[in-house]
Design goal:
Elements (H helix, E strand, L loop, with lengths): L8 E6 L4 H14 L3 E5 L6 H7 L4 H6 L1 E3 L2 H5 L2 E7 L13 H11 L4 E6 L10
Parallel strand pairs: 1-2, 1-5, 2-3, 4-5
Length: 127
């Protein structure tokens, strides 16, 4: 069986605050064929509540990893795209979502790639 580039995409949620938001992410992942989710210090992770929001996603819910640090979540990734709608004073390479997706899929040929999303209220920390 040939591995899809999408199977090498990891979604990382940094300090998610609500199981409903985790469920919505899992539902979108399932619809797109992405199956790996990692949570960095989630406020809550209620598998039953998540599956109420995201039907037929038990495989992703069951395999979701919960880790203590962002470094742990990204350790095996060859490329990471952090998504935010906040403008940053820190110097970062900014690309639009379409270009970021193309870049991630190109790099998925080399190994795992990550889509990183921050907290619902504050986004990603600058560091």
């Amino acid at each position: 069986m040939v591995e899809s580039r999408l199977s090498r995409v990891v979604v990382v949620l940094y300090e998610p605050q609500d199981s409903v938001n985790i469920g919505a992410t899992i539902r979108a992942m399932k619809n797109m064929g992405v199956g790996t989710l990692r949570l960095v210090r989630p406020a809550e992770f209620d598998a039953n509540r998540i599956e109420t929001v995201a039907h037929d996603t038990g495989d992703i819910v069951r395999d979701t990893a919960q880790v203590d640090t962002l470094d742990e979540a990204l350790a095996d990734c060859v490329r990471v795209a952090g998504f935010t709608r906040r403008r940053r004073a820190a110097r970062r390479v900014l690309v639009d979502p379409r270009a970021a997706a193309a870049d991630l899929l190109d790099n998925a040929e080399k190994g795992r790639v990550a889509m990183l999303f921050g907290r619902e209220d504050h986004g990603l920390p600058n560091e």
